[in-house]
């Protein structure tokens, strides 16, 4: 709670014209106010408890877990953990966005298991509901600290401002800059929701500066599905991935659309998004099994000498798909294996960028091979935006996501692989 300061020498207030309150009277008022505050808090907690009971009915399990989580929350709110040091100029930053519980989750009586503190402290707790061997219930509290976190009611604009705008600004101001933002998380955690908003915001900002500096802007949008690459702005035409003698990776045949205004960007985004989801049998299935890459390239007018700047926005395949390796269907199994491989390779490549390691294992997967430029070079910047669903029935996937994000910035002990 707020700390009360010593009684100031108050000038006569509007309510008590001309009367100076004695220190004693003020002390009594403060005590009253405190009591009132406590009463309101207790009322709110009681109401929450009532609501939960009404809502969850005789689902005693859920209610028991929720009470444990509520107790933890109160504890943490009263004793917030210390902030950790953040370096705003780091080459790699890791953030987490939590989406709100949806109707379906509420309908299935799932409850929120993720507590977030302030955006800038980056602290969050995942309360994992567990059953002990004696069948009694408990909650395992997993603590994490990231560069920034975005709680469930954060607007897209705020996410853009804090996660992607710094990349865009760097891209504009620094020649040869390669900026990349990844949306990571299980299917349904909100990756596409975030990225769709980010595409247009970033493009608008880049277009504005391009006009100012007389630069050209080009957009391409493609998908990596298994080990193949498809152009989402050319009816999923296959694109060949070739590496030249210098190790530079080229996407042969990928169309780069010149754009001049926001309307054109919007059209391309819509076209590509439609193309991505209607490509094959089941729409949701396909998009959750592929990585999509939206690229904005800034170039000098013809004949310019300065090097290209690039912003890549990547909507990754559902992180849970990497576990499909035990699936009965062979195609699904192979796809799962490739997704798993690409997400692991991605983690290693971002980590190499973060630690300044000269060995970047980008050949580990198609995804990292295609994005090679994002991991090498002095002017590479990366944001990993991990997405989590808040519901109790997603706790395991969310925990996996948070651990993945956490390890991206953790230094690997020398000579040891990832556990
Ligand atoms: P993903 O791309 O990770 O599979 P989606 O972006 O498609 O997930 O999100 C799943 C559903 O949740 C969509 O209906 C989306 O509109 C909704 N959603 C996701 N994030 C949010 C959010 N922050 N606020 C409100 N609704 C959201
Ligand atoms: Mg999606």
Summarize this structure briefly:
This protein has eleven helices and 14 strands. The protein has helices at about 25-55, 60-80, 105, 155-175, 190-215, 260-275, 285-290, 330-355, 365-370, 370-375, 395-410; strands at about 90-100, 115, 125-130, 135-145, 150, 180-185, 215-225, 230, 235-245, 250, 255-260, 290-300, 310-315, 380-390. Strand 7 and strand 8 form a beta hairpin.
Commentary on this structure:
Helix 5 (191-213) packs antiparallel against helix 6 and helix 8 runs parallel beside helix 11. This protein has 419 residues and is an alpha/beta fold. Strand 2 (114-116) and strand 3 (123-131) form a beta hairpin. It has helices spanning 23-56, 60-78, 103-107, 156-173, 191-213, 262-277, 283-288, 330-355, 366-370, 372-375, 395-409; strands spanning 92-98, 114-116, 123-131, 137-145, 148-150, 178-185, 216-225, 228-231, 237-243, 249-252, 257-259, 290-299, 309-315, 380-388. The protein contains 11 helices and 14 strands. Strands 1, 5, 6, 7, 8, 9, 10, 11, 12, 13 and 14 form an 11-stranded mixed sheet that branches. A 3-stranded antiparallel sheet has the order 2-3-4, sandwiched between helices. The relative contact order is 0.14. Helix content is 41%, strand content 22%. The site of adenosine-5'-diphosphate (ADP) has 13 residues, from helix 5.
Question: Can you give keywords for this protein?
Answer:
globular; binds magnesium ion; single chain; eleven-stranded mixed beta sheet; 11 helices; binds adenosine-5'-diphosphate; 41% helix; alpha/beta; 22% strand; 419 residues
């Amino acid at each position: 709670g707020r700390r009360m300061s010593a009684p100031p020498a108050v000038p006569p207030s509007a309510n008590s014209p001309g009367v100076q309150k004695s220190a004693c009277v003020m002390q009594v008022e403060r005590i009253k106010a405190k009591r009132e505050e406590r009463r309101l808090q207790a009322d709110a907690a009681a109401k929450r408890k009532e609501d939960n009971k009404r809502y969850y009915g005789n689902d005693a399990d859920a209610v028991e877990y929720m009470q444990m989580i509520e107790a933890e929350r109160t504890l943490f709110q009263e004793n917030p953990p210390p902030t950790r040091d953040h370096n705003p100029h780091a080459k790699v930053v890791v953030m987490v966005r939590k989406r709100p519980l949806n109707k379906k989750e509420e309908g299935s009586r799932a409850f929120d298991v993720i507590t977030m503190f302030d955006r800038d402290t980056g602290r969050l707790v995942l309360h994992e509901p567990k059953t002990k061997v004696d069948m009694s219930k408990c909650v395992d509290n997993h603590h994490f600290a990231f560069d920034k976190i975005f709680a469930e009611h954060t607007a897209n604009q705020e996410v853009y401002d804090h996660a992607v705008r710094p990349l865009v600004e760097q891209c504009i101001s620094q020649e040869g800059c390669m900026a990349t933002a990844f949306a990571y998380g299980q299917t349904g955690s909100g990756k596409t929701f975030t990225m769709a908003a980010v595409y247009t915001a970033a493009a608008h900002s880049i277009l504005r500066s391009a006009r100012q500096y007389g630069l050209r802007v080009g957009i391409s949008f493609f998908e990596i599905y298994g080990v193949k690459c498809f152009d989402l702005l050319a009816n999923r035409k296959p694109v060949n991935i070739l590496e030249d003698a210098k190790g530079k990776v080229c996407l042969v045949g990928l169309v780069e659309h010149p754009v001049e205004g926001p309307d054109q960007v919007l059209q391309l985004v819509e076209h590509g998004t439609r193309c991505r989801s209607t490509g094959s049998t089941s729409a949701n299935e396909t998009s959750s099994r592929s990585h999509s890459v939206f690229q904005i390239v800034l170039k000098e007018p013809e004949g310019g000498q300065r090097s290209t700047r690039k912003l890549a926005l990547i909507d990754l395949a559902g992180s849970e798909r990497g576990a499909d390796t035990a699936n009965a269907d062979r195609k699904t199994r192979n796809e799962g294996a490739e997704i798993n491989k690409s997400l692991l390779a991605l983690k290693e490549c971002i980590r190499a960028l973060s630690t300044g390691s000269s060995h970047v294992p980008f050949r580990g997967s198609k995804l990292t091979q295609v994005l090679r430029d994002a991991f090498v070079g002095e002017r590479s910047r990366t944001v990993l935006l991990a997405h989590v669903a808040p519901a109790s029935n997603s706790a395991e996937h969310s925990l996996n996501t948070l651990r993945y994000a956490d390890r991206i910035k953790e230094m690997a002990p020398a000579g040891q692989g990832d556990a």
